[in-house]
Each structure stands twice: as structure tokens, then as C-alpha cells.
Amino acid sequence: MLGGAAGALMSLSPHPAAAVLKLDVTQGNVQPVPIAIPDFIGVGLQDPAGGRNVSQIISSNLRRSGLFAPIDQAAYIEKIASVDALPRFADWRQINAQALVTGRITQSDGRLKAEFRLWDVFAGQQLRGEQYNTTADNWRRISHIISDAIYERITGDKGYFDSRIVFVDESGPKERRIKRLALMDQDGANVRYLTRMTFSPRFSPDGQRVIFSLQRGGNSNLFVMDLRSKATTRLTDAQVIDTAPSYSPDGSRISFESDRGGKQQIYVMAATGGEPQRISFGDGAYSTPVWSPRGDHIAFTKQTEGKFAIGIMRTDGSGERILTEGYHNEGPTWAPNGRVIMFFRDPGGNAGPMLFTVDVTGRNEQILKTPSYASDPAWSPLLQ
Prior knowledge:
- The protein is mostly beta strands.
- The chain folds into 2 domains: about 5-155, TolB, N-terminal domain (Rossmann fold), CATH 3.40.50.10070; about 165-380, Neuraminidase (6 Propeller), CATH 2.120.10.30.
- It contains 3 helices and 27 strands.
- It has helices at about 50-65, 90-95, 140-155, and strands spanning about 5-10, 35, 40-45, 70, 100-110, 110-120, 125-135, 165-170, 180-185, 190-195, 200-205, 210-215, 220-225, 230-235, 240-245, 255-260, 265-270, 275-280, 285-290, 295-305, 305-315, 320-325, 330-335, 340-345, 355-360, 365-370, 375-380.
- Strands 1, 2, 3, 4, 5, 6 and 7 form a 7-stranded mixed sheet that branches.
- The chain is elongated, with a radius of gyration of 22 Å.
């Protein structure tokens, strides 16, 4: 949990501007916003590189979104010496920065205060200013929260950086692969291991439980784990392969994959059980369904003619659209804002699966590095 409180910083803008920087992410082809993120000023930090570490995480988060283009610090003209003074906007315009982030990290008595300001360079106006108080070991999370605030102010959409990924960690030789349920920050940091031999884990809407499948005998059934107590409860007991469960955003329904009709297809039913309804009817086999946080789409894996594709469809099965395809793509999961999908790709041979992200438009595909091979990712809601 984030300790302390957040508060707005008083605006230093000398005058209101006629036009304010805003990125329309609903357009088909979005040009990334050039943004300058100097190292945060460090005051009383035990780690002298603390300010730089925070700015680098913010820069990395925004760059991976595909909507921002952080400018190389070697191009900077002004050296930010204070967050309490107006920047020299002419210097930042000269290097074509449209947005500027300045910040300060202060450590005292084991507590951390983080302050930042987001500037519209061409308008000469402060767009947002916040300060956060927390424990000193929470500096990485503060970096993600600031990234979310910047993302939301410029795009109008909620950010997704202050979130976690649960996935299946795979290590050892291919013929003796050990699989463990693992948890990490959305950027691949802070990996923790939870348990062994699970498949297709997914978070509940409140982020406190994980629903998944376990194979026992010739069948596969659904279970839920409370992440606080680690207690596990069995949800289904059928003589079929029911797997890859996913909650709807309000927690009232579950989508899952089942072979009860003879071939892998996507079904939807009440979270408490009941009669499943099949929603996939296209050519090929459908698997690993997962609900969008916005509640309007379900992402899935589709296998046809030896190819594995990642796609999305409406919750009634209509409007199917493929985002990426290849030899073996599988296991999509949505970012908390519903604009980015993570999945895993297994190239075959002696190599193992790796995690990738792609925008809902099918662009900006990127790899996410993990300590070892990784599969079956699941994105958490924003942390509370």
C-alpha cells in the first residue's frame, strides 16, 4: 500500500494558454509526443542515483506505451536546478520538446516525498503538479504513479503503470520444465514466486484474488486463490477440460475455454456457476479468453492452419478482429486502461516462451524481459 497522501502542487504558470497539449489516442495513427524528463532533483537521498532512477522509470514507462518519445538528455540545454521556478521554455522548444516533466525526491527519517510538475512547453503552462508521501522503499511505485498521472493528463485515458502481472515462470530444460506461478510489476521488476503447476491465472476485479485452472487426472478444473491468505477454493468439477477463466470487470460473469463441444471454444457464464453460453463460432479453435477492463471486448487466442493469432471480439462474439499472428502466440491479458494487450510467444525448438505487448490497434508490439522463460501473463488492476 502507498502510505501517506497525495496533493496538488500550486501552478507556476504565468498565464493561461489558448491551446493545451492533448493527445487523441482514438485516432488511427498516433504520433508520439516528444517529452523531456530530466533527472529528478534528489534531497537527502541515501542513494545518490535516486532521482535519476525515478526519471528513468518514468521515461521507460511512457516510451513503452508507444504514445510518448522521451528526448535524449544529451540534447537538453537547460539544467533543471529547482522545481519551484519556471523552466526556460525557449530552451525546451529549441529541442522540439512538447512536454516537460520536472521533479524532486526528498528523503527524511525513512520517509519519501516525491513532487513533480508536467509542463506544456509551447503554451508555457503547467498541466499538472502533484506531491506524494510514502516510505523510502516505495520509490519504484511512486515512479509508476507519476507515469500514470502524466499519461492520463495528456491522453485523457487512465494509465496502467502502477499495476502488476501474474504469470507462469518456466525454468529448466524443455523436457523437465518447472512451472511456478509468479508475480511482478508491469515493467518486469520485483518478481515474486507464489506456487507451482498452475495454468492461465487471472486477477479478480479487486486485485485480491487469482482465478486459475489445475489439471488433475484427465480433467482440468477452475480454482481461486486469495492472495492475502493464500487459501485456494475449487470452483468447478466437470469431466471436461475447463480452463483459462477470466472475470468480467464487475465480477458478475466469467469467460473461459472449454472442449465440452468437442473443440476448444469460448464460453461465458455467471461467476457463481450456471449454464455456459458459447460465443465463438469462427473457423479454428478459440482459447484463453479474457475480459477487457472496459467490459466491451474479450481478447482471445485463435488457432487456424498452424498459426496462432491474438484477437479481440465483443462480449457476444461479434466484431472479431486479429491484432497479431505467428507460429505460437497465446494468453492475452489487458492493461488496466484497456488499450494494451500482453501475451506470450513461444518460438519453438529449444527456446522458451517470452512476454510481448501490443496496442489494441495492432501496432507497437514490444518484448517484456523476464528473469527466465514466461507464459500465461495476467495484468492486475491499478494498485490501491
